[in-house]
Amino acid sequence: MQYTKPATASVSRSRYNKTRPSDTMQTDRDFLPFHTPDIGNEEIKSVVETLRSGWLTTGNKVKTFETDFAKYIGCQHAVAVNSGTAALHLALDAVGIKEGDEVIVPTMTFTATAEVVLYFKAKPVLVDCEAGTFNIDPLDVERKITPKTRAIIPVHMAGQSCEMDWIMEIARKHKLKVIEDAAHALPTRFDDKMIGTIGDITCFSFYVTKPIATGEGGMAVTNNPDWAERMRIMSLHGISKDAWKRYTNEGSWFYEVLFPGYKYNLTDIAAALGIEQLKKCDRFWQARKQIAAAYDEGFAALPEIQRPACMPNTQHAWHLYIIQLATERLRIDRAGFINALKDEGVGTSVHFIPLHLHPYYRDMFGYQPADFPTASRVFEGIISLPIYPAMSEQNVKKVIAAVTEVVGKNRR
Ligand SMILES: Cc1ncc(COP(=O)(O)O)c(C=O)c1O
Description:
This protein is α/β, with parallel strands linked by helices. Helices cover 39% and strands 12% of the residues. The chain has 15 helices and 13 strands. The protein has helices at 7-16, 21-25, 41-53, 60-73, 84-94, 111-118, 138-144, 164-174, 225-234, 268-279, 281-299, 334-343, 359-365, 373-379, 393-410; strands at residues 77-81, 102-106, 123-127, 149-152, 177-181, 189-190, 193-194, 201-205, 218-222, 305-306, 314-315, 321-325, 382-385. It has a seven-stranded mixed β-sheet, with helices on both faces. Strand 4, helix 8 (164-174) and strand 5 (177-181) form a beta-alpha-beta unit. Helix 3 (41-53) packs antiparallel against helix 10 (268-279), helix 4 packs parallel to helix 10 and helix 5 packs parallel to helix 6. The chain is globular. The two termini are 29 Å apart. The model is unreliable at 1-27 (pLDDT under 50). Bound molecules: pyridoxal-5'-phosphate.
């Protein structure tokens, strides 16, 4: 067993042993939830300080979080917003997506990646994924480009980088913008480059299950000052910059509305959490990496379980550990396997139900399963297992034992 319990986990476990919401929601206290955030005393102290400061909305904590985040990624500008979806929306606005444009989006993603395209009355053109990584298939990207295509949104599935060299080359050739959906990708690298330093704008999510969490939150990063400025203005009603200061000593009562913007600003309460979570980002990653290594070893002797493919030229963030069932070797299907794991006390999830299988995308655009053969096929067998720093060594062993047990009972 290679996994050793990270130092932060012990703090969180003792703090949450009696009160974790996921525990209180379960009647069986031995149930291992799919995810629980790792919130330590540092985050609690930082949030309490912010509450006591009297400044709850966007302020100095948000500024600090933006500065720290840009430094961590190694980029020029970071704009904090209240969700990853908001970051994606503002990014598409900044690069000038308009009604009637087409934007290339993988079918293997969460609906947020495509719905933001629809906000502009533009068309999300879905493309298939690669079989091993579930990342966007660059060959299919090239096939789907038309004279109306304006941008590509690669999603770094599970925390593993897409083929960014290839995607950037396609984008340059066809004069397309690249907006990276890095909701899973912190900290992820392609070759030696940090995700957040490659595409035109990169969008992160701090939703509760994500690599670092502020409950709800997001960040758009870029090296282009004009886009950063546009995103900042549009994130707060399209009001001239530093509008958030208008109720401070330094601020002024005078402001001008430059565009019809949105209400996407992050609160200082959330940023107070984010600042502390970011400090732990590398430790969290190490803990997830160790769990992934333990799973890899634990499932190595099970031909019924295909382990995640790991590309040599990437640093995998291990946000998700997605197994693929060799269903032809089993007497139960994916739903049966998930239920059996639940009976063993292990919570799981599925990332993702491909967009083309959802009623909206199917009916609105006429997408068929056969249009996306790889995503349609792999979807039938994928299961995401728990992988988060608050897991103990026992928790990891429990998952391996549960998967082994379910396979053993249901082998053909
Ligand atoms: C791939 C992907 N993109 C975007 C999002 C949206 O992030 P948020 O929930 O912060 O809006 C998610 C969230 O689950 C996601 O998984």
